[in-house]
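Researcher: Let's do a round of design. I'm pasting the structure tokens now; please hold your answer until I've finished.
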């Protein structure tokens, strides 16, 4: 290269001797700065990752169309946990050569570890389109759907992945959670039962099995699971609430009240325990005690449907129509498909003399028919446990 530059300098008649010397020195330093793929690989093997990354960048600078160099740069950046830069390098590599083996999966991993679950899922789909037998990509696709809160799709792919790796309890745990949140309760109960066989002293597994059994309307069995969990871990938050809720469903209000009070002893601000205690007091016709609990509950969480409904009904009976209307309208906004909210609002309009509005609400009740069966999913936790995108899978 220096000879070519020298030749060019000779042919430039106006070039000065100092200028020629500068060109020669620049050319020599440029030649020294350029690094080869072999040097980059050697640096990586030595564990000198920042230096290896710079070496690959030098290779790319010399040949911007070197797809393999971009792919190798992505690997080095991923090893440094620079996942955003790695993903960019992988995309450039694929843009130059889509046939590069393993790079689409590496891209999916880089996106997954950033918590970009939709982008990760797209990459793993591409991997499976090329090789449907890739069990690792199948598992990672399921985990990506779980992270994206697409639980039915997560369950579908994780179930297939778990068949290839039946001893992977972590995978089974996420499969079970996916089934639970997709309300595929039979699948969830089966998977949590397998987890319990491996670890019968897991309070969490007993709780989750109980949730699945509750979804299958096997409430007595669900209560037994929660009782086992409470015995194993009596101080764990939400176990007593869950057990209380199951007793409440069975109209065993005395047992329910005891469990809700135990929950409040652990967490005095537990909104749901407060709300259900208020509901029990209202069922016992203790309006003032009920109002005290329900107001504490809605102060902590204004989205609790039971608190809004009960307060609306109590205020309606007390002929405090403005307060009743505020609570009942909130209840309808929280769940427009809740028949009880429309029924109580219809009663309010009738009491106020607005029969047309009352009839409209009563017609809505008839359209909605019966109240859908409630279960514990979403009560104990507002969302399933999050994945840790930084974990290796």
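Researcher: That's everything. Go ahead.
Model: Designed sequence:
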């Amino acid at each position: 290269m220096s000879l070519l530059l020298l030749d060019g300098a000779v042919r430039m008649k106006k070039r000065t001797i100092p200028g020629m010397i500068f060109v020669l020195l620049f050319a020599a330093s440029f030649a020294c700065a350029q690094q080869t793929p072999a040097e980059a690989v050697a640096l990586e093997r030595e564990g000198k990752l920042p230096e290896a990354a710079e070496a690959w960048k030098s290779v790319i600078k010399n040949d911007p169309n070197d797809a393999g160099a971009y792919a190798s740069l992505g690997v080095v950046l991923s090893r440094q946990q620079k996942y955003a830069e790695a993903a960019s390098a992988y995309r450039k590599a694929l843009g130059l050569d889509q046939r590069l083996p393993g790079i689409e999966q590496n891209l999916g991993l880089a996106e997954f570890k950033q918590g970009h679950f939709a982008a990760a899922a797209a990459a793993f789909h591409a991997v499976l389109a090329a090789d449907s037998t890739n069990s690792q990509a199948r598992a990672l696709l399921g985990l990506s759907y779980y992270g994206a809160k697409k639980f039915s799709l997560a369950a579908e792919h994780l179930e297939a992945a778990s068949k290839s790796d039946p001893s992977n309890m972590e995978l089974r745990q996420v499969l079970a959670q996916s089934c639970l949140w997709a309300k595929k309760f039979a699948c969830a109960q089966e998977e949590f039962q397998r987890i319990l066989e491996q670890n019968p002293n897991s309070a969490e597994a007993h709780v989750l099995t109980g949730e699945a059994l509750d979804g299958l309307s096997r409430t007595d069995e669900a209560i037994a699971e929660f009782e086992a969990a409470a015995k194993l871990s009596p101080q764990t938050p939400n176990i007593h609430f869950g057990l209380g809720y199951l007793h409440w469903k069975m109209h065993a209000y005395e047992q329910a009240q005891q469990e809700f009070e135990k929950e409040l002893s652990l967490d005095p601000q537990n909104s749901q325990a407060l709300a259900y205690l208020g509901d029990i007091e209202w069922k016992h016709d203790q309006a003032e005690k009920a109002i005290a609990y329900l107001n504490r509950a809605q102060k902590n969480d204004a989205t609790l449907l039971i608190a809004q409904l009960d307060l609306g009904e109590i205020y309606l009976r007390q002929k405090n129509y403005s307060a009743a209307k505020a609570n009942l309208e909130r209840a309808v906004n929280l769940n427009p498909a809740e028949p009880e909210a429309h029924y109580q609002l219809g009663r309010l309009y009738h009491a106020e003399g607005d029969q047309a509005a009352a009839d409209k609400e009563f017609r809505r009740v008839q359209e909605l028919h019966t109240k859908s069966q409630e279960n514990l999913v979403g009560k104990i936790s507002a969302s399933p446990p999050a994945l840790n995108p930084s974990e290796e899978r």
